[in-house]
Write a structure and sequence with these properties.
The protein is α+β, with helices and mostly antiparallel strands. The chain folds into three domains: about 240 residues, HUPs (Rossmann fold, 3-Layer(aba) Sandwich); about 80 residues, Chorismate Mutase Domain, subunit A; about 130 residues, no CATH class. Helices cover about 35% and strands about 20% of the residues. The strands form five sheets. The chain has a six-stranded mixed sheet, sandwiched between helices. The protein starts with 13 loop residues before the first helix and ends with a strand.
């Protein structure tokens, strides 16, 4: 239940509020409570409240984490402050040092936040919780920033008191508490905290709102932070209903790409959906694959290109870290990676240290990493009597792996009665154009034996229970 503030500010017991909130969460017996601890007044109050809760609940594990961004000359002093205060509270402290990306098109605030959460979340497991000291005024800032960016109900829902993470969940015990009450409580308890000088730099959006805009809003409408939080809660309710509807419909639009186990979005009949549902479904797909959502304008442009480009057009879009491609009327998403094609020869011969242990059955499997930055997968060689496989090479046959064969190269997959040109087989096996250059082909001498992960040549295919050579790709992640 939200704390009521009918009494004077200094009478509010935030420690009891924090304890009541945590008790209501039905924490798992082996739970670890991890506090994102900056040493500022907000996290200082939360650390103090957590220490009080820990005294009453020794059955849980506790961890304070200070993230050292290296952005301030005072960061080392702040880290020592957090270590000292953690000892005072009887709570262990870890200092995580991170490097923040900087660039002309990067938001320092956003990049610092990203690496901060990455550093902290690595300490969480499925039953753990992350505690952050966001409060009611932070919520108002988040709502105003969402309005500035033109976001819809999802953005305007801002922060929830309980939110799921990849591992565990995030709790915000102070989200219904004003900044004034937090500062008053810290003064009442004599809590020592740090002051980050960057909080006075209004070039950062949140600081601009905190220093220039919100004080004026509160002067005219003292309860605006509370009422704005109410609006955020209503948006969250509406978004939850919408998310449920999308989650029920989205699976009908998803499938697994034939060539590799990647979830893709089907475009069949997509044009027949309403404009609103096109946006909702594609947005749901992008989010389900772990990518940040594009803006409304970007999303509309993506949909137009996906639906109007000719069948043979190479749709290749990038939004932030997300790369969007279309092939065979399906949408593929990838994380953007900048790489250069390697200049090494596009074929390599298997050395004796690979072949001999396999052929003499000293080993049944061996994984080889091709050298050079061009490849995105290891090659796994194995001797087996199951599945598609080629006869074992003869002692005088040189075994090699080659790449980028000509489209006119004629192949004869083991499942086909007749041979066919490679450029036709690419389509038949649904191999996207951007992946074809990375598919390796095994040769014995100058004879094609198999396309790795796709087929074995019919003349080399082994049947019944005879041992044979099987070669597969292991995607590097």
């Amino acid at each position: 239940m939200p704390t009521q503030f009918d009494a004077p500010l200094l009478a509010v017991d935030l420690s009891a509020h924090i304890s009541a909130f945590l008790t209501a969460q039905s924490l798992a017996p082996d739970c670890k409570l991890v506090l994102a601890y900056s040493g500022g007044v907000d996290s200082e109050v939360l650390a103090y409240g957590l220490s009080q809760f820990a005294q009453q609940h020794p059955e849980f594990n506790y961890q304070l984490i200070y993230v050292h961004h290296g952005l301030s000359d005072n960061a080392d002093i702040w880290a020592q402050h957090c270590i000292a205060r953690g000892q005072h509270y009887g709570l262990p402290v870890i200092v995580e040092r991170v490097s923040v990306n900087r660039g002309p098109r990067l938001s320092l605030e956003a990049e610092a936040r990203k690496v901060r959460y990455q550093a902290i979340e690595q300490h969480l497991t499925a039953n753990d919780v992350l505690l952050t000291a966001h409060h009611e005024d932070d919520q108002l800032e988040t709502i105003l920033l969402a309005l500035k960016r033109g976001q819809g109900p999802k953005g305007l829902a801002a922060m929830g008191q309980v939110q799921a993470l990849v591992q565990g969940k995030q709790l915000r015990p102070l989200l219904d508490i004003s900044r004034e009450h937090i500062e008053a409580y810290a003064k009442q308890q004599g809590l020592v905290h740090i002051e980050d000088e960057s909080n006075q730099d209004d070039k950062f959006d949140r600081n601009f709102l905190r220093l220039e805009i919100i004080p004026r809003l509160k002067a005219r409408w003292p309860s605006i932070a509370t009422t704005a939080s109410r609006s955020a809660a209503l948006c969250a309710e509406q978004q939850a209903t919408l998310d449920l509807q999308v989650s029920e419909r989205l699976p009908m639009w998803l499938t697994v790409a034939p060539y590799h186990a990647q979830t893709v979005f089907k475009l069949d009949s997509f044009a027949e959906q309403s404009v609103d549902w096109q946006a909702l479904l594609l947005r749901g797909f992008i989010q389900s694959q772990g990518f940040a959502l594009p803006s409304k304008v970007q999303l509309n442009q993506i949909i137009v290109q996906l639906l109007t480009a000719k069948d043979d057009a190479k749709v290749h879009l990038r939004v932030g870290e997300c790369v969007i491609r279309r092939f065979a009327n399906q949408v593929y998403l990838f994380k953007y990676q900048s790489y250069k094609h390697c200049n090494m020869p596009l074929n390599w011969v298997l050395s004796d240290d690979v072949l001999v242990p396999l052929l003499q059955q000293e080993r049944t499997e061996l994984v080889v990493t091709p050298k050079g930055g061009f490849y995105d997968a290891n090659i796994r060689f194995s001797i087996t009597s199951q599945g598609p496989r080629a006869r074992l090479p003869l002692p005088d046959e040189v075994v090699s792996v080659r790449y980028q064969l000509a489209g006119q190269f004629r192949c004869h997959p083991h499942l086909r009665d007749k041979g066919r040109e490679l450029k036709k087989l690419w389509q038949e096996f649904a191999v996207p154009p951007w992946m074809r250059e990375k598919i390796g082909f095994v040769f014995y001498g100058e004879e094609l034996v198999m396309a790795i992960g796709l087929w074995v040549e019919k003349n080399f295919s082994v049947e019944s229970n005879e041992l044979g050579l099987q070669v597969d790709r292991e995607i590097l992640v």
